[in-house]
Amino acid sequence: MSSITRFILDRASEPRLEQPAPPVAVVDQAFQCASRAPDHALLRPWRYLVVEGGGLAALGKLFAACCPPEASEKEQERARNAPLRAPMVIVGVASPRPHPKVPEAEQVMSAAVGMSFISLALNEAGFGTMWRTGPVAYHSSLHEGLGLESGESVVGFLYTGTVASKKPQVPRPEPRDYVARWEAPDRIMPWQE
User: Between 20 and 30 A from 59 (CA), which of 37, 134, 183, 188?
Assistant: First the structure.
């Protein structure tokens, strides 16, 4: 088994993260990895925001502002404190561009793959990560607060830092539980509109 395969098989999300955050050189290298995501037509349909320091509290205020009106004070406080669970949060933003051959969905998937590559690169450098989304990721107030442009969307919040304590291993499904072999039918129908 290659070291890359072993590394991916051992990968886990780490919810308990503390200082220090990855240094600039490590984060920059992770972004270089993100740029290697499959990208049909080289559209570069993604960008990233690095949030740390006082920006984490500001991001928490945005999260709290996205709570529904009926949210309790406790729920608002939990939203406000969410970004403080790690010393750094990387916001992945899908920035699709109009293209006759590359659907928007493919471009959003490219941004998501880039986030995964960032996570793997940070893990390889010795840092923990936890990819989070939730309703706040899709809220227009958050998009406005982060300065997203029309048509952009958040693909995730990648919390990162030093692992405070490892969590128990999560059982993984066997490939036979989610993989099937496809057999071509005897007759293939012609394309009809």
Answer: 37
